[in-house]
């Protein structure tokens, strides 16, 4: 079990793109969602699957357990998905020694770009990259579980 401090930001520009180290195509869906726990399955690059259990109502710091799942079984379980199946490409971008995961959503969430920063400590504001937009840490509507259930929180104008 790993405790994570997760901060989430909207992305204002594409200035992060030249710094991409790696990208992975993700299909993820939820089997159970409540205010204090979720069960998620994620398929990465169509090659491997992982089951994730998250516990706690504090979106910035939760208990998380992850387990590999046979790919065929994960695909079979997709029929039990709650809400929308989320499709996105996650780009890994390093800035000042920290790894940012920039999620570019597709399909019904097309146009949404969100960055997550998971660290054991809180990163000072002056250490954050300039391409970050508004911080949405703790805003439930930007959690992947809420996106699956409720869709796009707000369309850019």
What does this entry look like structurally?
The structure is a single chain. With 157 residues, the chain is mainly beta. Helix content is 9%, strand content 53%. Strands 1-5-4-3-2-6-7-8 form an eight-stranded antiparallel barrel. It is globular, with a radius of gyration of 15 Å.
Summarize this entry quickly:
The chain has 157 residues and is mainly beta. Helix content is 9%, strand content 53%.
Helices and strands in order:
Layout (H helix, E strand, L loop, with lengths): L1 E10 L8 E15 L2 E8 L3 E8 L5 E9 L1 H7 L4 E14 L2 E8 L7 E7 L12 E4 L8 H7 L7
Attribute tags:
157 residues; 9% helix; 2 helices; mainly beta
Which sequence of SSEs, written as H and E, runs from N to C? EEEEEHEEEEH
**Outline:** globular
Strand order of the largest sheet: 1-5-4-3-2-6-7-8
Mean pLDDT: 91
The major beta sheet can be summarized as:
8 strands, antiparallel, barrel
Q: Which structural class do you get from the secondary structure elements? A: mainly beta
């Amino acid at each position: 079990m790993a405790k994570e401090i997760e901060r989430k930001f909207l992305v204002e520009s594409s200035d992060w793109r030249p710094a991409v180290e790696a990208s992975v195509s993700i299909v993820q869906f939820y089997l159970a969602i409540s205010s204090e726990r979720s069960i998620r399955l994620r398929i990465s690059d169509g090659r491997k699957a992982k089951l994730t259990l998250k516990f706690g109502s504090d979106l910035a710091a939760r208990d998380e357990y992850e387990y590999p799942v046979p790919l065929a079984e994960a695909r079979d379980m997709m029929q039990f998905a709650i809400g929308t199946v989320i499709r996105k490409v996650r780009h890994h971008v390093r800035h000042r020694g920290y790894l940012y995961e920039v999620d570019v959503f597709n399909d019904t969430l097309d146009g949404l770009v969100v960055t997550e920063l998971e660290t054991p400590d809180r990163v000072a504001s002056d250490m954050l990259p300039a391409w970050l937009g508004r911080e949405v840490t703790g805003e439930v509507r930007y959690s992947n579980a809420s996106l699956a259930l409720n869709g796009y929180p707000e369309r850019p104008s």
